[in-house]
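ok so heres the complex, two chains, lmk if somethin looks off
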Amino acid sequence: MITRVALTVLRRGTIVALGALLGASAATKASSPWDDPYPSTYHASPSAPVLIRGATVLTGTGTRLEATDVLIADGKIAAIGASLAAPGGARVVEAHGRWLTPGLIDVHSHLGVYPSPAIPGNSDGNEATSPVTANVWAEHSVWPVDPGFSTALAGGITTLEILPGSANLIGGRSVVLKNVPSVTYQRMKFPGAPQSLKMACGENPKRVYGEKNTAPSTRMGNVAGYRAAWIEAEEYLRDFKEYDAKMKAGGKSAADAKPPKRDLKLDTLARALKGEIPIQMHCYRADEMAIMLDMSREFGFHIASFHHATEAYKIANLLAENGVCAAMWADWWGFKMESNDGIEENIALVDAAPQSCAIVHSDSEEGIQRLNQEAGKAIARGRAAGLDITPERAIRWLTANPARALGILERTGTIEAGKMADVVLWSRDPFSVYALADEVYIDGALQFDRAHPPSTPRSDFMLGQPATAGAP
Amino acid sequence: MSRSTMPFGRFVSSAAVLALVLTAAAPAALAETAVLLKNGLIHTESARGSLKDSSVLIVGGRVTAVGPGLTAPEGATVIDLHGRPVTPALFGGVGFLGVEEITEEDSTIDAVLKLGQMHPEFDPSLAFNPDSIPVSVSRADGIGFALVIPGSEAGRHGASGSSSVAGQASIARLDGRSPLAPVALSVVIGDGGALSGSSRAAVYMLLAQALEEARNPAVANSTDVHLLTPAGRRVLRSVVTEQRPLLVAADRASDIRTAIEFATREKLKIIIQGGAEAWRVAPLLKRAAVAVVLDPLDDLPASFDSIGATLENAARLNAGGVAIAFSLRDPDPHNIRKLRNAAGVAVAHGLPWSAALTAITSAPARLFHASAEFGSIEVGKPANLVVWSGDPLEVTSLAEAAWLDGTQATLRSRQTELRDRYLAKVRAGAAR
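and the predicted structre for the whole thing:
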């Protein structure tokens, strides 16, 4: 709907010039340039075909294939099977005894918006000046120089969602990035991946604004705050609908029609109501998640996933029945009252519900480097609780399930012919503390090669720093 | 659901047997009870190293024999470990265990003194609560001891902060008893000098003055302005005379160098805490016999003090002959169980496995004067040990049983209660 409205606006005047400027890139897609005035300029790095031979392959679809070959060509998974032939010019990687998985996807990262070094000049993750800042976009805070991108790459992260922080009830739009080195974030931006809307339950918004003696200062104030924002967005949608109807009617009605004033905040919320922007919701407590599910029905938006969700295990069935993912840590808890009931079996219990969507996330520049180990802990706790969790099942927590939550499962997140060749070759079973990502491919290009580390740091920040001399 | 009735997945038979035997052993008269843990892989953390196919005999709460071919005394409970590893009870690192319940709730935190003055006499371990939830959660993952330190926090919004000389550090025990007497004095360098009048250089100035007050009665008795209270002077004097170490939190190579020079000049013993760039001054640390308590997961320039942070810090220091122990950087107590994972990460980045285990058992016990109780499995010492489902540094291994202060410890916690309540609901499809 907003897309159509935007086109109408375009036809009417001054903004056409902007549209024309963006036309070249937009013409290749079906959607309007208004969809993304800051378009992705990501291009897969050119690469020769790669034949990875004889690995144990966890496909991300729930299957484990022993001693299997995977052929990568033109940036895509070209073939999976036994005794595949290497095309001319292909790089052949002998991977017997090693494990191949889809590239890991972290749905909750603040790399670039809360980069290292963590000093005030770099602190760009929370626009904590108003409880509803649906108008801000995390991508406009991303500092691509953050050295955390390359340490995450060494941990097998190929795709990550950068979110605004959780100070606000409605924090703003997220961006999905491919984890490649770049001067501009646009060259990391995952082409065609939807932005999400970050919202936050509970203690953070009520503490941040309560301390300023403004609303919200309670959980009921939180809910009133979200509802007021959605009601505004409904009005905004209605105004545009009326305007659209007048334009459609033509004649005097169209001539007199004045387009409603565009509002960045309401643009985002209206798109969420139209189902174009999924919701990523920071929420710890089970009872609050249930309230949010009711609210999503009240206004008709979709919550793609609850993030942190330390009590998701208490409502594992409810979440699964509502088609909502839960993005969780293996063992963080207790830092706030609302995280006091976190247990190490959370991921495994959420996963155990039929039709579940369990995700391992980091929210941490340290944790993102070892999501595989976080999953390993969850597997062990689940097994000790009597749940049968195979590696081929658990890998989905880090690959297919986050891809689903981000709306990019058609393109990445599994090892299937035709998908983006985002894969990680591990030194061994990836759910071990001793496993290392040997090679990380993004769209078929070898972006990390442990055997041949780059001779200079990837991050500009690390360049020429005496303290790194001799460090890897 | 109790452990003995719970299905165990692929470990089902052996783990269930172990649990049953342990349950039977628990109620007996403990002081007289003999327990033989047989057929294990015993990582003694003593000169005897790791012993395969071996046993540990515990009589009256003390280890009375370790090795192969032990026979059980009359009436002893015999537990077959089926090759499982046994380690000393683990060190939980340096932080706020037992003196912080919920990080965001100030009323639950007793670690930080915000009087804005130097109080070396501050001893946060007096507030240690053995019933704190993180204590039982940590115990359930095989942790038996930890170093409780005073926190440091810069003053905000005109409020007083703490001092760069934060107070005393003590070993806490996770067996219900109170902490041991203070073993170190906590000093913080860096942080842009937020705790020392906005310059890290001032830490030395202030500390030198405080030492003068402590050592020199003429200075203490003068009418000049004093940094320390009489109690503070007494404590600092005892730190100096008893050669208790200063636990100096510093990351930058130059700060470590300056701290060592200061300590040499003032004839103080120091231990470096943090030490993100310690590998860069490894020869100096070795020469000065200064140990480093580090977080093996530090590898990003979190601040301008840790530009040289690397996952190989532990391996390089160890190779350079520097004594190391591990602690997570985060002082919050909830997830200190992650320390053994961090030790495993150090192994993945070049540290020998045995050195990694040492860094979370015997090394911190030695550094903080707790070796009489913790850190090794040796004849004559109280049984403080853990039976693991597999490699204790591996993320997929779990603590299956533990003895603390000679008694079999419960591995249950509020978290295991929550697990069992909701596991049943999920199994019934009723978690909603």
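quick notes: Confidence is low (pLDDT under 50) at residues 1-33 of chain A. thats all i got rn
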